[in-house]
Amino acid sequence: MMRNLRVLRRRPIKQVLILVFILFNIFEVAQILRCLSSPTNEPVTQRSERVYIASIHWNNERILRSHWNDAVIALANALGRENVFVTVYESGSWDDSKGALRELDMALAAHKIRRNITLSETTHLDEISVVNRGSGWIDTPRGRRELRRIPYLSRLRNWTLEPLQELARQGERFDKVLFLNDVVFNTDDIFRLLNTNDGDFAAACSLDFSQPPQFYDTFALRDAEGHERLMQTWPYFRARESRRAMLRNRPVPVTSCWNGIVAMPAGPFVSSPSLQFRGIPDSLAASHVEGSECCLIHIDNPLRVEKRTYVNPQVRVGYSGEAYDAVHPQGLLLSSWQVFKALWENRIRRWMTSPWLKEGEVSRRVKRWKSMSRENEEAGEICLINEMQVLVENGWAHV
Fold this sequence. Notes:
The chain has 13 helices and 16 strands. The chain is an alpha/beta fold.
């Protein structure tokens, strides 16, 4: 009899707990779905700003002709030709990217939009075949002295900023620099990005997708606590502040990002000394660590002291028309079941994993490097990962 009474007492408690669990999840999912229903397909009010557009390209003919050129022309016209300058640097493509960019050049000229489009004949093979192999080169485990990918990309990105700096010397100022990858976007995407946090930011980034639902740029993105993404699908982040903002569909505080399109205040790029893209020192890279120039630029940005860097989850771009369409559905981006499943996957990952094992190995390598010389310092340690990346004839490689 007593045993039966104990069983009966336990049963209601168990049922209550199950009911609480169900109600909690229903409430949480409903709240998130309301946040995710914020419209992203309505026109956004244009900010009265002058925008300098910078982009680098390599073998991007297909997307240039299918989407990118037309989107840039539409954006420049929407901003107003007196408020925009377009700089594009193309380097050694073997497809017809040069032909596509010549078409862009002629179209911008027809619209009287100022631009600087540079088409370089220097290929990757030319870059890796030089005799003088000093700064930016590294001795790799495969017994060669090879050109590091990140210093090379930094050089190209810095070239796109030279017209901005020349215009500044002539007394012309811009409010924002807009860095565009080879992504599908439209004018409203850009206006929405520029409106992130009412336009008050050290940087604002989109979310980029190549194979949805996984986001693409895992190399440069770090959450508010400086960690890499927890998962490659929504809600992405480990840090509580970043994760909660993503759940609310609000601008997400992060330490660094790139994600296809980035807007940054122009001031630091035309100050003295000017903000520049860079790689980590070659001597540190020799320890088999690397950091994205697109992460380091945020660490070096002096505005990060007074302003924040954000990912805007309402600005989603794609590396193809199909990817862009997949992240711009007519209805909600996520169903109730997908939200529930993602929330619990995120929780379990946070409970069962730690970033310290991965980050600790990199930290030990940095510590050993610092111990070699008092001059060895690297502010961008959160950007570093356990990789060595070098340029090769047909792209780049891990070694």
